[in-house]
Amino acid sequence: MLDRIFRVLLISSSKNFAASIINALAYEPYEISVIDTIQKAKRLVIEKDFDILIINAPVVDDFGIDFAIDEALRDISGVLIFANAKYETEIYYKTYQYGILTLVKPSTYGILLQSLRLLSSSLIKKEMLFEKKTDLKSRLEEIKIINTAKLLLIEHKQISEDEAHKYIEKKAMDFRVNKIKIANEIIDEYYKKGSK
Asked: Looking at the structure, do residues 18 and 78 belong to the same domain, yes or no?
């Protein structure tokens, strides 16, 4: 069993469909909120974050495709649209490029669960990539700060890049702080001198 609960927004005008989804997923890691119109869903996604959006198309006030695309482009990681066989292919071709899954209804429990597990796995992968991207951005910013400090040392102390690097490392070890703190202090020191 997963240690994570995925927040699902289910939009369905059919109470029977909503009840069948809730019952099918009762023992799975999904917390389901049910809304019966697209307008209500638009208000709810402003107030609350969801991981997965399920639309039982058509909904009473809209077919739901535009909302599904908007949410797929926004933050909701996975979008699943249930549609009658008559519309499923058309919906698929309008939405697949946004990573939206379409299923023909009625569908089996196995297909529903597989689809939600695929969306859940995609969400986890997306979050891991976002964290990695954030870490890389942070690391690049650190390198930029350290390189700026080294350039200031090279310019003002007339030393080589290797000597500037060792200078920053030694100061960081001597004061038991990270190199970024020393680099920022060097930058502050030389910019203050330059502004006098």
From this structure: yes
Tell me how many domains the chain contains: 2
- Return the exposure string of 88-122: e unless at least 16 CB atoms fall within 10 Å of the residue's CB, then b: beebbebbeeeebbbbeeeeeeeebeebbeebbeb
Q: What's the pLDDT band for 1 if we cut at 50, 70, 90?
A: very low
Residues 103 and 146 in one domain: no
Per-residue model confidence as pLDDT tens digits over 87-107:
899 999 999 999 898 999 888
Give this prediction's pTM: 0.70
Q: What is the CATH number of the domain that holds 149?
A: 1.10.10.10
Pair 87, 139 in one domain: no
Helices 109-157 and 161-175: crossing angle, nearest 10°?
Answer: 110
More confident residue, 194 or 178: 178
Q: Which candidate, 150, 142, 152, places its Cα nearest to that of 167? A: 150
